[in-house]
Design brief:
Elements (H helix, E strand, L loop, with lengths): L1 H11 L18 H24 L4 H22 L5 H24 L7
């Protein structure tokens, strides 16, 4: 009977596997992704605005381009705010990625518009 109790006690003391760490409440973009995003949009602004000096047809594209980095920065700041809901942070992160996509695609279209 002693061995039965010993077996029960040993089974009860068995180390439980550690629970996996909880998922982060606030999904944030990695710093490297933010840096690439800022660089991509700044490159687009620099190129389109440099071309706009020689090609007046690109003046409107230049003014639109200047708003993209600012919009991205606002969204990153709101996403970093502790009061932002998880759903909002996810949507803001997605929006930042869409802005970056626009910057990259518009940069790729510049040679067709006559910009080097």
């Amino acid at each position: 009977m002693k061995w039965l109790w010993t077996l029960i006690l040993c089974a009860g003391c068995k180390k439980q596997p550690e629970a996996p760490p909880p998922a982060p409440d606030r999904p944030t973009l990695p710093a490297s992704e933010i840096k690439r995003a800022q660089d991509a949009c700044q490159t687009y602004v620099d190129k389109v605005c440099a071309c706009a000096e020689a090609m007046p047809a690109l003046k409107e594209a230049c003014s639109h381009a200047r708003a993209l980095p600012e919009a991205m920065q606002v969204e990153l700041e709101v996403a970093a705010n502790a009061e932002s809901a998880r759903r909002d942070v996810l949507q803001l992160n997605d929006s930042v990625r869409k802005i970056v996509k626009e910057c990259i695609e518009e940069t790729a279209r510049l040679p067709a518009a006559g910009c080097p």
